[in-house]
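If you are new to this repository, start here. Below is one unmodified record pulled from the training split, so you can see the exact layout before writing a loader.
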Amino acid sequence: MSEGASGTRSLSVGVIALWIVRIALAAEFLYSGYLLFAGGHTEQTFEQIGLGQWLRYVTGVLEVGGAIGLLIPRLGGPAALLLAGVMVGASITELFILTNGGPVLPLVLLIASATLAWFLQDQTRALLGIEPPPDEEDYR
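And here is the target side for that same chain:
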């Protein structure tokens, strides 16, 4: 990052956009996790799935944990990947298991989480100790 005349750092538009997406997704998943723990209509939904209420709590923990992870710089990539996985399950459930399922929101959240995970893949690689692939120029 470059420093301006006043000594402050200037952030690129891409970095700011990624943080806006991270914060928006974190807010959505915190709210969704809250609804899962609060019960109400989510109890009926998970009853219709047929695997029991334990799945509601596991999903809530994954969503809240992923939302918190999105806000921690080193964990943003892995958290986005985790949330994309949760949304794969939610999308499949809404499409094929629930009688009046609405797959639009889970699919939108899946696309947003997967896209964010793609842009933050360096964080995931660093956490797992995986070297980034060599540049194409190295093969020429």
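Two things worth knowing about this chain: Strands lie at 2-3, 9-10. The helical segments are 13-38, 41-49, 54-70, 76-97, 104-119, 121-128.
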